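Response to reviewer comment R2.3. The reviewers asked that we include at least one raw input/output pair. We reproduce the pair for GNAT family N-acetyltransferase here without editing.
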Amino acid sequence: MTTDHHITHIEVAPGFHPHERELAALLFWQAFRGKLGRIMWPEARALEFITSNLDPEFALAARDRNGNLLGMAGFKTAEGSLLGGGFSDLAASYGWVGALWRGPILELLERDIEDGVLLMDGIFVSKEARGRGVGTALLSAIVDTARHLRMSKVRLDVIDSNPRARALYERQGFVEISKEDVGLLRYLLHFRTSTRMQRALAS
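Raw output as returned:
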């Protein structure tokens, strides 16, 4: 796929370069630290795990005209997801004891894929690039990716502590289809509900 998007000198293209891996991991952590911090802490080990397990095959990267990384969006299919890694990878970063309790909790946060539906697996933009249309460009590229893969819908989940992201998704045609209360996990995750949103794609 060679789909590129230009919005005020923003280009979105598949994957990320090897030299961008550490920055991509840092941006991912900054975006999701509020959600995952108590599970993935300490920060050094979280960054180690994320850096090792980001998969460029399931990433779309936004860059400025000078090639600087501004943000990324991930997606999940039956073949994999943006942040991969299994129990052994967790153990490599946190030790076996640390992996034993983190693994099941992270598994609870996983979202199942559906036939004909592309699952967006996270979107994050650097603080310096926010408000420049990067998120909109990445969402547009996710939709194009879904069409390229012959999917009929795009699905995502947004937490109640991130109203700004939900507003962006609504502007881009996503509608709420269900809401889930995380129950006692709220004490670990810093949010109470997760809303599933979906956008149907014209055939």
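Residues 5-157 form a domain with the Aminopeptidase fold (CATH 3.40.630.30). The chain has one domain: 5-157. Further pairs are available on request from the corresponding author.
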